[in-house]
Amino acid sequence: MTNKSVVIIGAGWAGLAAAVKLSEQGIKVSLFESAKQAGGRARAVRFNDLTADNGQHLLIGAYTECLHLMKTVGIDTSTSLQRLPLLLTVFDKKYSTLILKAPALPAPLHLLYALFTAKGLKLKDRLTAINFGLYLKKNNYQFEQDISVAQLFKKTKQTDVLVRQLWEPLCLSTMNTPIKDASANVFMRVFKDAFTYKRKDADLLVPMVDLSNLFPNAAIKYIEDHGGKVYLKSRIENIEITNNQVTSLTAKIDNSLEVIKTSNVIISTAPQNINKLISNHTRLNNINNKIEQFNYEPIVTVYLQYSKETQLSQAMIGLSNTLSQWVFDRGALCNQPGLISVVISCNGPHMDMDDDTLSQTVHNEISALFTSKPTLINSFVIREKRATFACTVNINDNRPQNKTDINGLYIAGDYTNTHYPATLEGAVRSGSAAANLI
Question: In what order do the strands lie in the sheet with 6-9?
Answer without folding.
Answer: 229-232, 29-33, 6-9, 265-267, 409-411
